């Protein structure tokens, strides 16, 4: 396998920059830059092919099997000057034993060498992208192997169930002293319940990773844009007395008690002959329908809409005038806004509480596929022993679905999609 190299830290001026080499020729390539390579760590002077001084670097060396990639690795911790980096990368690029790494190639090698499973790779990608505390915590759980451990537990139980059934097949002509049906049914039931719970939490986990959407909706001039500006803490939306000022959806990214939230200010909902405003109203309705929470802004005298659900919050604008059901707020003075934000946060925290360790649609599909096989196996358990071979095959199919969670089966297309989102140095 080729020996690869890349900048492992962000581009740009910095105090320190790290260049990583991975592969069987990483040490010999490093020797051409510094002479003696330290056995584990040390400071070395780097020179180009002509003997010109490039930089003084702190060098880390990892033996095969002890590094992130599982290969022999050398890391050069350089001064983070763009000129220093350019000169070192130029020298490495001219080394015939090296080639530049592709996006995500270091992590891909870690997967191929058994240092990470597929779920951990996904967790690492999410950890790199994490912007809020909740995103960080969830990504760390997956990166640390939580989903892989869960899948391993399911695999052990299903293999046990399949082995018990195989025993009934092998000894079909002999007297079997123990009825395996109760244990097999218990094992299948345990796995199925755990999978169902995890699968149900994936949609919320995806929102946790990508951000929840909260849409502010209502008639023109009820104070939606003023409320958005107040919550955002800055002038995001234009506020005028003219009805229909907001014609497109305005988005504001927030960190709400550690949860990523996109706050949406939508066009005022009304009948209009203005073509552009009409398009804005239709777009507002579409985004509101997809939002996780809808904040309905009403005036004091307005009736509560009939289609209010668990994901809807009633807000009465202009708190000094508001009466009736809902949270009284004033975007101008800020009265009631903290109460509204706390209520939104509480609703989101309740949803996040149902999140397990499965975070992606791929995980949900694999688990639902496994559940179908387990349901077929359960149905077959009520039949005659002649069905044992068919039930065992259903269990083997379920095991293959579980294996796809952590990459034990062919997942080449999944890998290409995941690694395309990685930076070059990872």
Summed up:
It is an enzyme of class 3 (hydrolase). With 426 residues, this protein is of the alpha/beta class.
CATH architecture of the domain at 210-353: 3-Layer(aba) Sandwich
Oligomer: single chain
- Rg from C-alpha positions? 29 Å
Mean pLDDT: 85
Written account of the structure:
The structure is a single chain. The protein has 426 residues and is of the alpha/beta class. Among the domains are: 112 residues, Probable tRNA modification gtpase trme, domain 1 (Gyrase A, domain 2); 144 residues, P-loop containing nucleotide triphosphate hydrolases (Rossmann fold, 3-Layer(aba) Sandwich). The protein is built from 13 helices and 12 strands. A 6-stranded mixed β-sheet has the order 3-4-5-2-1-6. A 6-stranded mixed β-sheet has the order 8-9-7-10-11-12, sandwiched between helices. Helix 4 runs antiparallel to helix 5, helix 6 runs antiparallel to helix 12 and helix 7 packs antiparallel against helix 11. Keywords: Cytoplasm, GTP-binding, Hydrolase, Magnesium, Metal-binding, Nucleotide-binding, Potassium, tRNA processing. It is found in: Cytoplasm.
